[in-house]
Design goal:
The complex is a heterodimer of chains A (671) and B (90).
Chain A (H helix, E strand, L loop, with lengths): L1 E7 L5 H9 L3 E5 L6 E9 L2 E7 L11 H13 L3 E7 L3 H14 L3 E6 L1 H6 L3 E2 L1 H8 L3 E3 L8 H13 L12 H17 L7 H9 L3 H9 L5 H15 L3 H20 E2 L8 H9 L5 H45 L4 H19 L2 H17 L1 H15 L5 H9 L3 H6 L7 H10 L9 H11 L4 H25 L10 E3 L8 H35 L12 H13 L7 H10 L4 H10 L8 H9 L2 H13 L4 H11 L2 H28 L4
Parallel strand pairs in A: 1-4, 1-5, 5-6, 6-8
Antiparallel strand pairs in A: 2-3, 3-4, 7-9
Chain B lengths: L1 H10 L2 E2 L1 H7 L4 H13 L3 E4 L24 E5 L1 H12 L1
Antiparallel strand pairs in B: 2-3
Helix pairs in contact in B: 1-4, 2-3
């Protein structure tokens, strides 16, 4: 039985043609040794039976995936009587790359030019005769979904099978390459290798640096010929460039020539809508203010929707739940300590963090929209120019953007930086980028002192952190890590309408890790701190006489120049080194001692002033990152020294900034 | 065309497949293929940014987050730079 193989790009309609040819006469299995699906069927035409093999969909016939290997080996080793190359007529240029590789194999090929109706719909006019002449093989237009052209395809296939020789146009690789192909081919001829691959194709693949073929020869008896092949490669590379590049380039040149002669496409808009939008969004002077404005709107919306709409609802719900649980425990005669732990520790601490989940959700919802729409890549490009002008690598901004979610992946994202200098700077400044865990701290203080300007204050904090990061980056590039900055090219993805699923997943990614930490790290921290806040036995819980109070009182003088030298604030900052969410949880717990009504925000209003609130927020923005970040820096730099350095220098920067804000503010009469 | 695309990329700090496609009178899927070939040959390297996804599903296949418009960047490798230099000399 003669064999007809079907090969084509994914989504070219290959399977539809296979079904049209075989009908119900097909069976599915696996190719030997791989997990690639094998489909075979039988075609009966004019009383003759033909075996039809549907090869895996592939864009090329290299050796870079199992699909490619299966298709290529079947054509070269099993040698079907004819190969039908299914080509998507709407994307002919891309599909013809596979065709060029089939031509190189010297096998009998015919092209099924499929989806002709869609091509016509797109006003793509294809001169089938000219295309056939250009390729040197038969071309049959088909619309497989309507079974149009199938009979003609079968007839042409049988005609081609019965032809003695295949007449194809050869791809010209240029004199230098063709000479070397000939030399290597003769060498292979003289060795009579134990392979079914045609020598001319083998020679081409060796020059193209096909890793699979090189490996095959290396493992064979005639591995010495690889030295001669390398000589050929070097010879061409010395006068021109690497043969593999020339070979691929010539394939594209061949395709362009064939397409130019046979395909007419409607004049595509050269300046697209996307280009016009980019002209504004990535404008040299307008790009940055637009980015700033967009982010300001995002933060403002976060407050308006997150706090005013959902935040208060969740906070109210949490309060009621806390009271109900406490009441339930009292009625059940639960020990006093347990009731205190549940109401002050759990609901006052962990609950205080959970109240901000709606805001975090809303913020990442909007950031998700910006990312999904393709805008964030534009923002990264706008920032890249600024980074470069400061002598920093543009990719540093990408790691900063990731750091907005969490500094740990932000630091991991610096792995894409090639030079050690660029990477070290990017890692050391990433902790200044305000992560999601710090958000509840700002939200508590903003709600307490600046509820009408929430968006603006939040935006200013993010910008301040970013500016400090840039400043430190500049200082590091001039002192600790001198050297040239390497450059990279950024890809601007097409604009697209964000999908709800994508945005919700994005949001859930951030919120779930926040919730996970609230249920694990924060819970543990709160439990330990709560125990410390009620010990030694007999002291007033959550007072300065407790162990926690004494620790806080010991640290507090450090923060006195910054205006928040209380033991509660100090303990909060101390807990923040374990995890930043723990700052609010701790404040919630230690201020739960004031109970009688006011709640955390009112307690904060009593303990802080607007000025000290700002200096406290700036301190939390800049000071020592959480343990996970310090650990990541240690792991990524492979040095304890840099981890300790980061912990200390960020603390110093945060402290200096907080002190400056408080002292300068006080000097100008602010309170 | 592949060499021209490489040269063009080296000259621009930012690009989109569409702009390159317009420049070379082709479509963006061909440019995508060319970029893959350049990557395979070690002339450029691609760095994908997954936005620090923590979902931990084990596979990004079919995930709208993985296919979302993240920030991808390319670097012209030493090999790529050498090829550009050599072709400029030719």
């Amino acid at each position: 039985m003669k064999t007809i193989a079907l090969v084509g790009n994914p989504n070219s309609g290959k399977t539809t043609i296979f079904n049209a040819l075989t009908g119900a006469n097909q069976h599915v299995g696996n190719w030997p040794g791989v997990t690639v699906e094998k489909k075979e069927g039988v075609l009966t035409f004019q009383k003759e039976k033909y075996r039809i093999v549907d090869l895996p969909g592939t864009y090329s016939l290299g050796a870079y995936s199992e699909d490619e290997m299966v298709a290529r080996d079947f054509i070269l080793i099993d040698q079907p009587d004819v190969v039908i190359n299914v080509v998507d007529a709407t994307n002919i240029e891309r599909n013809l790359y596979l065709t060029t590789q089939l031509l190189e194999m010297g096998t009998k090929v015919i092209v099924a030019l499929n989806m002709m109706d869609e091509a016509e719909g797109k006003k793509i006019r294809i001169d089938v005769e000219k295309l056939s002449k250009g390729l040197g093989i038969p071309v049959v237009p088909t619309i497989a979904s309507k079974k149009n052209g199938i009979e003609k395809l079968i007839e042409k296939s049988i005609e081609t099978i019965n032809k003695k020789q295949s007449f194809q146009n050869k791809i010209r690789y240029g004199k230098e390459i063709e000479e070397q192909i000939e030399i290597v081919k003769e060498l292979l001829d003289s060795l009579s290798l134990n392979t079914k691959y045609p020598y001319e194709w083998l020679a081409l693949k060796l020059l193209e640096n096909d890793s699979y073929i090189h490996e095959m020869i290396r493992n064979g008896a005639e591995s010495k010929i690889l030295g001669r092949v390398q000589e050929s490669i070097d010879q061409v590379a010395a006068t021109m460039m690497e043969p593999e590049l020339i070979i691929v380039d010539k394939r594209y040149e061949f395709i362009r020539h064939v397409v130019k002669e046979s395909v007419k496409k409607p004049n595509e808009e050269v300046v697209t809508k996307s280009d016009r939008i980019d002209k504004i969004l990535t404008h040299k002077w307008l790009g940055l203010p637009i980015f700033a404005l967009i982010m300001l709107i995002v933060y403002q919306l976060t407050f308006t929707i997150g706090q005013d709409l959902f935040g208060e609802m969740v906070a109210g719900g949490m309060e009621v739940l806390g009271e109900k649980v406490a009441l339930l425990l009292i009625n059940a005669n639960a020990p006093e300590l347990l009731v205190a732990f549940i109401s002050d520790g759990l609901f006052g601490g962990v609950g205080a963090v959970l109240e901000f989940v709606p805001l975090i959700m809303v913020m990442y919802f909007f950031i998700g929209i910006l990312e999904d729409s393709g805008y964030m890549a534009r923002a990264a490009y706008v920032m890249d120019r600024i980074m470069r002008s400061l002598g920093l690598h543009g990719k540093t901004f990408i790691s900063m953007l990731v750091g907005v979610g969490c500094n740990v992946p932000g630091i991991m994202a610096t792995r894409t930086l090639d030079s050690k200098k660029d990477r070290m700077i990017a890692m050391l400044i990433n902790p200044f980028i305000s992560c999601g865990a710090r958000l509840p701290i700002y939200l508590v203080f903003i709600a307490a002192f600046f509820p009408k300007h929430g968006g603006l204050v939040l935006f200013s904090l993010y910008v301040f952190g970013f500016l400090i990061a840039l400043l430190m980056g500049k200082i590091f590039s001039k002192t600790l890590f001198k050297g040239e900055t390497s450059y990279f090219i950024m890809e601007l993805p097409p604009y697209r309408m964000p999908t709800i699923k994508g945005i919700l997943l994005h949001m859930w990614d951030k919120v779930s890790s926040f919730l996970k930490r609230a249920g694990t790290v924060i819970f543990t921290v709160v439990t330990i701190l709560w125990v410390l806040s009620v010990l030694p036995y007999g002291v007033e819980p959550h007072s300065s006489a407790s162990i926690l109070g004494r620790i806080g009182s010991f640290i507090a003088p450090i923060f006195k120049p910054a205006g928040f030298g209380t033991w509660q604030a100090s303990v909060g900052l101390f807990a923040g080194i374990v995890a930043k969410e723990a700052v609010v949880a701790t404040l919630g717990m230690v201020y739960a001692g004031v109970e009688e009504g006011p709640g955390l925000i009112m307690a904060i209003q009593e303990a802080f002033t607007p000025l000290t609130a700002v200096s406290f927020m700036v301190m939390t923005l800049l000071y020592t990152p959480c343990a996970a970040v310090i650990g990541t820096i240690r792991r990524e730099t492979n040095s304890r020294k840099w981890a300790i350095f980061t912990a200390l220098y960020t603390f110093l920067v945060g402290w200096i900034a907080a002190v400056l804000i408080f002292q300068v503010g006080r000097f100008f009469g602010l309170s | 065309m592949i060499i021209e695309v490489l040269k063009e990329m080296a000259d621009m700090p930012v690009f989109s497949k569409k702009t390159l496609a317009n420049k070379f009178h082709t479509n963006d899927t061909v440019i995508e293929q060319v970029l893959k070939e350049l990557q395979r040959m070690g002339c450029i390297s691609k760095e994908e940014n997954n936005n620090g996804c923590n979902l931990g599903c084990g596979s990004c296949k079919g995930c709208p987050m993985a296919s979302s418009n993240g920030i991808n960047s390319f670097t012209v490798t030493e090999k790529g730079k050498r090829i550009i230099k050599n072709t400029n000399l030719c």
